[in-house]
Amino acid sequence: MRLGIGLPTTIKGVRGAQLTEWSRRAEAAGFDSLATMDGLAFPNYEPLVALGAAAAVTERIELITAITILPYRQNAALVAKQAATLHDLSGGRLSFGIAIGGAAADYAASGVPWEERGRRFERMVEEIRRVWAGKARDGAEPVGPDVSATPPRLLIGGAADVAFERAARHGDGWIMAGGPPAVFSEGREKLDAAFRAAGRTQRPRALAGGYFALGKDAEGQARRGLGEYFAAQPDVAELSIAGAFTDPGMVREALDEFERRGCDDFLLFPASAEPEQVDLLARARG
Question: Which of 154, 166, 174 is nearest to 198 (CA)?
Fold first, then answer.
């Protein structure tokens, strides 16, 4: 199982120098990927732009959006171009995780109707795939850069059954939105079944993740960082804080259990922006 570490893009007050230092340390420590979360109605860095900064100071580490909320971005061709640009600039390192999102405030901030998010998602995924394949609209020029030979890997997030169907139709795998190992096992089974039903013979990639804070005042860090990020969703905040990994033993136990259940990648997102957290997690994984 591959282990990825989240960039601290959702931590209030994070600065660009912390983000790039975090990226350098993550690659040096041997993590397999750097990941970003998304949200519009929050003072966080935009995920594709943040991964562009990470790409500039790294060479090999995979870059994952886990996830990018697609429907409120509206212009699928522009999103496709942004993702293709990052993929090309980084030497083909982008895995583009996308979902519809679960925060109505993000849609209100963008002016996109919450009720239309599912329909928009379907149309936009199809358009993104068309752009990446190098196909132009009637009477229009293709949208580049040309990534048709090796496009970004497409991952679908979500917990509803339709997420697995979308992954089988459009993507290379699925990202679990969060939850315990038993929930992941159910998702893994649904994902594999959806790929079989779609006639796809390859084993789909399944990713899961959690939150961590290590070192001095780890529980306090988790409460502050996650509490601020999920302030508009108190129930989600409490669940996230309660489930955060705050000591090395918890990290190792989670990694062992998710690997046993067929997880291909586990992504750990920080509750603190201090780059020291990268080193603490590297030691904790064993």
Answer: 166
